[in-house]
Amino acid sequence: MKTYQDFSKDEFVENKIEVTCIGAFDGLHRGHIELIKKTKKVDNNYQIVTFNEIPKIYFDNNLKPLLDKKNRNNIFEEYKPTNLIYLKFDEINKLSANEFLKFLDININTNKIVVGKDFKFGKDRIGDVNNIISYFGEENVILFSDYLIDNEKVSSTKIRNYLDNGNIEQANKFLGRKYKLTGTVVEGNKMGSKLGFPTANLKLHYELYLPKFGVYGITCNLDNKSYEGILNIGITPTVKDSTKIKIEAHIFDFNNNIYDEILDIQINQFIREEIKFTSSEELINQIRIDISKVKNK
User: Fold this and answer.
1) Whole-angstrom Cα distance, residue 159 to residue 242?
2) I need a labelling partner for 166 at 20 to 30 A (CA). Which of 76, 267, 272, 293 fits?
3) Which H or E run includes 5?
4) DSSP per-residue codes, 49-79
5) Are residues 10 and 130 in the same domain?
């Protein structure tokens, strides 16, 4: 597989490709994976064309990705495209719809193309699949319809809505994998240890879209070993008045010093919302209940 990073409008793909799939692939959810699989079925000599920045995030600084760049790349690699091309979005975005089609044809060696039926492109998003069909010919364009789960269209917007509501199970179902946070364990205020529940405080490697504040059941991966635990995402209002968001994991049956270690956290279930308790004793009792819910699930 050859990867092209920040592919500009003046670059050219070096090899001959039979079929191209293109999309923003925001979150790489199950619909996106089916699009890639459909392309691969057309011909194993295929390429994935996407953007170095998710377009909707490029235009909205407050929106965060569902997947970091490293894991996004790893998932693409699993499907073994001949080429993986990340277009330089701030440059490609300025092309007209017709210029973009010529770019796909000449620079990217597109013959056949597989694309979602709602795909938009070109300056001001004026181009659509009808333009693609007019340019490449109907016989060379394969349209991918909405991917449904339980009669509901899978989309990154709906996944974010599920995360906002703490519905992590449905978000995971739409993603086709567990929602994951990755970061380095950093030193905190050690309040968890004082309460009898030591926590690993996570500094994310990449700013991601966070689920609703609250407590979650998780699986941690550390040094190729898996551990169960609970995760608190929020501002820990009982312990300290603060607006700083903290991500703290209590790992079951584990008490090693893991400062500066890299921790992968898969979020499995929503336990409860974040609550401000009236005392440390009340908080301790609730943490015990949270742990039992995960252990007895």
Assistant:
1) 28
2) 76
3) strand 2-7
4) EEESS-HHHHT-TT---SS-HHHHHHHHHHT
5) yes
